[in-house]
Amino acid sequence: MLQSRLGLSQRRACAIVGQHRSTQRHRPAVTDPDRELRVRLRGFARDHQRWGYRRAHAVLVREGHPVNRKKVQRLWREEGLRVPPKRHKRRRLGVSSVPADRLRAERPNHVWALDYQFDVTATGRIIKILHVVDEYTRESLADVVDHSIDADATVNALDKIVGRRHRHPEFIRCDNGPELTANALRDWCRFTGTGTSYIDPGSPWQNPWVESYGGRMRDELLAIEQFDTLLEAQVLVADWRDEYNHYRPHSALGMLAPVDFARQHRNARTPNPSPTLQKPHTAISKTDQPLTQLT
Q1: How far apart are CA 33 and CA 53, in angstroms?
Q2: Quick one: which of 229, 43, 205 has its CA closest to 119?
Q3: Phi, psi (5° rounding) for residue 265?
Q4: N or C: which end of the chain has fewer CB within 10 A?
Q5: What are phi and psi of 16, to 5 degrees?
Q6: Smallest Cα–Cα separation from 213: which of 181, 239, 245, 236?
Q7: b or e along 41-51 (b: 16 or more beta carbons within 10 Å of the residue's beta carbon)?
Q8: How many CB atoms lie within 10 A of CB 129?
């Protein structure tokens, strides 16, 4: 007051009132009235990470703290507390023996590609379709149509293909769906000596041949026909598959149907049998005849 009203210096004013000069520089510690509440909110956020300030306020009121919700929200933000973003569950991934981006089919039965797609009947029931395609010949090896197709049904479909073709694939290429990463398919690959090539999650372009086949079926059949029953879907899909394999020209195969291309490839690799060499027939003279005939 002496400094402000009389214009005295700090040294002169302290000498007049008899106070030490350090008392003018001391800043009293201000006690935070919400310190205990802040500690409680930090502990609450640590123990319940998925709960927000609204639930914290409800718990505080239940415990008998007369605190306003807006005050809890303000303190929550000042403390930097927030609900962490949701974390997606860890997805089960298959183990590849050959990376998908390095595997390219070089001959029939080298790589079989597997994929699923869905449709719906007129009554609203889901239809699931399993595609199995030979990547080299582009043949559709199977189109299983059912309401549900699990890992065991997928293995049964592969067994039927092997029984019909009398050959196991060297590799199968597929995504990381639960049916394709299950132990049933892994055991089938291990027992048959088939390698696996799983594409990266969210990368359908790494499985292009079966994706293209599914797109053709979607464009030419599923987007046009309405299935009243599962049986009707199975019959129409089988008819379309037969036409695709035996009649539909494929641009990547020189406009040949996949079955014709596979037959042409087999004939080109089968060597023609060489003619049997026969000795020229020569007349036998009397002198060359055995002595028993000359006597």
Answers
A1: 19
A2: 229
A3: -65, -40
A4: C
A5: -70, -45
A6: 245
A7: beebbeeeeee
A8: 21
Q: Higher pLDDT residue, 253 or 116?
A: 116
The dihedral built from the CA positions of residue 185, 191, 197 and 201, taken in this order, carries a sign that is positive
Total residues belonging to the chain: 295
Q: Tell me the C-alpha distance between 217 and 211, whole Å.
A: 10
pLDDT value, residue 199: 86
CB within 8 Å of 266: residues ≥ 6 apart: 108
- Bridge partners of 116, per DSSP, are 130
Is residue 248 classed exposed, middle or buried when 0-12, 13-18 and 19+ CB atoms within 10 A define those classes? middle
Angle at 124 between CA 122 and CA 130, to 5 degrees: 90
Residues 6+ apart with CB under 8 A from 101: 206
Token pair recorded at residue 206: 């790494």
> Residues near 175 by Cβ (< 8 Å), separated by ≥ 6?
115, 198, 199, 201, 204, 207
Task: For strands 195-198 and 126-134, give the pairing.
Answer: unpaired
Whole-model pTM over 0.85: no
Closest CA to 113 of 81, 143, 78: 143
| pLDDT tens digits, one per residue of 226-270 | 999 999 999 999 999 999 999 888 888 888 889 999 888 888 876
Give the whole-angstrom CA distance, residue 167 versus residue 59. 66
